[in-house]
């Protein structure tokens, strides 16, 4: 699961990232409202933790813009604004939950788990599409018909998991780069193409009935063949 923290108090954001990474979440940080808005609109995160008061753009306005554009990523507001009017405004804008500072990290973790269960169901270690089973825990894929398997590198695992979580959906290079490498890393233009080729080879080796196909000018999508 990939989370975004939109928080201008860097010490808090950094501490939260460390704790969330201990829980095996992937985490990006946006330190201002403009960056937070851009990343929130990317549809590459499973959940967003949003501060209310941010430089550049207010957290409530970011959520309102997300919902107006049709983005359904769950959002937890984490803010010092504790008044009833503020809570109502945040929830009415489209926040799924509201937690005020100071807060207990364990409570935040519980709320994250609850929202993920609500939106994704309980996370299973085994992800299945076509005749391919991906083991998230062990980082391997297996042909369910022949029993043959092969190990994936870390980024191969993230990439194939992203495709298998969104079968048939066209995923742009930009979305893939953000999902796999994050917004803070410098990604070479052909990195996505290189890792897609790695995935294709391993699927072919396993005689998978899945293919990662290029959609000209748009990106890639995972398709199941009859």
CATH architecture annotation of the largest domain? 3-Layer(aba) Sandwich
**Which shape, going by the Cα principal axes?**
elongated
Count of individual helical segments: 8
For the record, what CATH class of the largest domain applies? Alpha Beta
Mean pLDDT equals 90
Here the CATH topology of the largest domain equals: Rossmann fold
SSE topology string: EHEHEHEHEHEEEEHHHEE
Taking strands numbered 1, 2, ... along the chain, how are they ordered across the largest sheet? 2-1-3-4-5
What's the SSE blueprint?
Blueprint: E1 2-6, H1 10-22, E2 26-30, H2 33-40, E3 47-50, H3 59-68, E4 75-79, H4 84-93, E5 97-100, H5 105-120, E6 126-129, E7 132-135, E8 140-143, E9 149-151, H6 154-165, H7 173-181, H8 191-205, E10 210-215, E11 219-224
Parallel strand pairs: 1-2, 1-3, 3-4, 4-5
Antiparallel strand pairs: 6-7, 7-8, 8-9, 10-11
Helix pairs in contact: 2-3, 6-7, 6-8
